[in-house]
């Protein structure tokens, strides 16, 4: 079949297998250009490994440090002639490249929050790897079933305490429109913390620790975002921010657990990039379009793979030292938050409107990055040619039954 992009709101409902493979190739090439990562991890578990920062971490550790990687995610295979999700095709391409290099790469597709998934991962690590020396927690899910109560919690993107008014970019119609978001109720805040906070991360680490699968010197990290004050009401000071605060508190607990074996745990604050998750956050797409323009002009632009490659090379390994802020977070958003970058964005923000989007922002770059997430717009890919949508992930492992 011929697969073309079909965009609905902030998501593309189609994905292209060859395009996703070309995007994986681009990211691998960037990592390889930096050479080997000295003293990098050798056995890595990535929870949320099929898109965004989780996928970038899997690529960077595999092709930069030669690591064996085990990826966990929840993606949709192709069925009834319909394309699979982008994360499915990303994983197909990643595993094929890793196996061609002689690297161990296996994956599990299912609910990462479930006890069954944790049991399956524990069994697979015990059988294949023995232990892991890096655990990356990079889930972005709209809902979670509490394993203790069976209750389903849903996350929301809302301010806390008061309504928030700003302007937003309608990426479908390329219009700047006013947006008002009502404040979250207490139950919504609590549910968002349940989904996006650190509770599940801790359950994963306890399961791995209890099974004796954490190597001496093991590190674990999760990802966060802060951004400028104009996004704080709907993010840092909103429901997601409450969840991220819980994530930081959880990092401290996990850090204490890992210190016994000279390990460490932390939250890394990353740069704003176009991901399936960030595209859904009000105000953020407009901010990212402005940020891209400013950072590209200053030669500072980074996508997920550049961010994670720099984190691994300059702070975590290669004789690097972690750059903590006063709240104990590692900062790799330093270029985004540079005073001159933020001043330039702040100066443009009041002026941008529908009529000057192309002049004042890099909306074209935003759209290009967005479509790349789904395998579209890649050079040397013939999108007019028929392609086979039904492809298997080479080393997809079975999940234990309850």
Question: Keywords, please?
Answer:
single chain; two-stranded antiparallel ribbon; globular; alpha/beta; Rossmann fold; 402 residues
Q: What's this model, at a glance?
A:
The protein is α/β, with parallel strands linked by helices and 402 residues long. Helices cover 39% and strands 16% of the residues. The longest helix has 21 residues, at 239-259.
Architecture overview:
The chain is of the alpha/beta class and 402 residues long. It has a domain at 7-155 and 193-280 and 301-334: NAD(P)-binding Rossmann-like Domain (Rossmann fold), CATH 3.40.50. The chain has 12 helices and 13 strands. It has helices spanning 17-33, 52-65, 86-100, 115-129, 186-196, 199-210, 239-259, 284-297, 304-316, 339-348, 357-360, 363-372, and strands at 7-8, 11-12, 43-47, 68-73, 105-109, 132-137, 143-145, 152-154, 164-170, 175-181, 214-224, 264-269, 330-331. A 7-stranded parallel beta sheet has the order 5-4-3-6-11-12-13, sandwiched between helices. Strands 1-2 form a two-stranded antiparallel ribbon. Strand 11, helix 7 (239-259) and strand 12 (264-269) form a beta-alpha-beta unit. Helix 5 packs parallel to helix 7. It starts with 6 loop residues before the first strand and ends in a 30-residue tail after the last helix. The model has no long low-confidence stretch (mean pLDDT 94).
């Amino acid at each position: 079949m011929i697969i073309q992009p079909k965009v609905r709101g902030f998501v593309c409902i189609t994905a292209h297998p060859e395009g996703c493979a070309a995007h994986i190739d681009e990211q691998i090439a960037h990592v390889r250009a930096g050479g080997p990562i000295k003293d990098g991890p050798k056995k890595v578990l990535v929870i949320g490994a099929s898109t965004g920062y989780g996928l970038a971490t899997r690529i960077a550790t595999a092709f930069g440090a030669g690591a064996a990687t085990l990826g966990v995610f929840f993606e949709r295979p192709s069925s009834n002639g319909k394309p699979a999700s982008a994360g499915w095709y990303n994983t197909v391409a990643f595993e094929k490249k890793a196996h061609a290099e002689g690297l161990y790469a296996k994956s599990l597709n299912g609910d990462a929050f479930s006890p069954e998934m944790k049991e399956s991962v524990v069994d697979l690590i015990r059988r294949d790897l023995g232990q892991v020396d890096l655990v990356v927690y990079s889930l972005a899910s709209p809902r979670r079933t509490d394993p203790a109560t069976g209750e389903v919690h849903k996350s929301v993107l809302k301010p806390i305490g008061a309504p928030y008014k700003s302007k937003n970019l309608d990426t479908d119609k390329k219009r700047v429109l006013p947006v008002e978001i009502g404040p979250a109720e207490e139950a919504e805040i609590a549910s968002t913390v349940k989904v996006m906070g650190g509770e599940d991360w801790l359950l994963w680490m306890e399961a791995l620790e209890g099974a004796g699968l954490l190597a001496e010197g093991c590190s674990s990290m999760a990802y966060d975002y802060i951004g400028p004050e104009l996004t704080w009401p709907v993010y840092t000071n909103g429901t997601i921010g409450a969840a991220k605060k819980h994530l930081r508190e959880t990092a401290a607990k996990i850090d204490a657990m890992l210190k016994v074996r000279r390990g460490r745990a932390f939250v890394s604050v990353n740069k704003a990039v176009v991901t399936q998750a960030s595209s859904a956050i009000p105000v953020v797409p407009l901010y990212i379009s402005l940020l891209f323009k400013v950072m590209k002009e200053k030669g500072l632009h980074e996508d997920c793979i550049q961010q994670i490659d720099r984190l691994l090379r300059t702070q975590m390994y290669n004789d690097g030292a972690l750059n903590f802020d006063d709240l104990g977070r590692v900062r790799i958003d330093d270029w985004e938050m540079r005073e001159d970058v933020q001043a330039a964005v702040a100066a443009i923000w009041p002026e941008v409107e529908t009529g000057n989007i192309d002049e004042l922002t890099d909306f074209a770059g935003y759209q290009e990055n967005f479509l790349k997430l789904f395998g579209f717009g890649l050079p040397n890919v013939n999108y007019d040619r028929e392609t086979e949508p039904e492809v298997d992930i080479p080393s997809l492992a079975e999940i234990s039954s309850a």
